[in-house]
Amino acid sequence: MTRKKNHILDALNSIAKAQTELQSQVENHDKIITSQGQDIARLEQQVMKLRNQAIQAEVASGERSDAVAKKYGVTASRVAQIAPRKDFHRPNPN
Is residue 38 a contact partner of residue 46, using CB atoms and an 8 Å limit? Predict the structure, then answer.
């Protein structure tokens, strides 16, 4: 009977150890996922900024809003929000 109890205790100790190791791995993976999510969010912001700058440059060069919208997969209204024509056609104050 004592021998059975030792095997059961050994098995329970092994399970507890495995659970602790698994929890540690899960916590490490959570940290990695959080970090990667933050990296992705920063990259998305940079891509959006570059896209908006490209849209502004094309509008400033005289491209039609509908053509720019089609090229960048946005609506003409969104192009107007990103690059209002009045900003690019103001008289030079000098």
Answer: no
Could you give the angle at the alpha carbon of 59 between the alpha carbons of 44 and 72, nearest 5°? 40
Cα 43 from Cα 37, distance rounded (Å): 10
pTM of the predicted structure, to 2 decimals: 0.65
Tabulate helix, strand, coil % of the chain (nearest 5). 85, 0, 15
Handedness of CA 73, 78, 82, 83 (dihedral sign): positive
Q: Are 81 and 59 in contact (CB under 8 A)?
A: no
Condensed to tens digits (0 to 9), the pLDDT of residues 4-33 reads: 778 899 999 999 999 999 999 999 999 999
Length in residues, the chain = 94
Q: Is 79 exposed, middle or buried (0-12, 13-18, 19+ CB in 10 A)?
A: buried
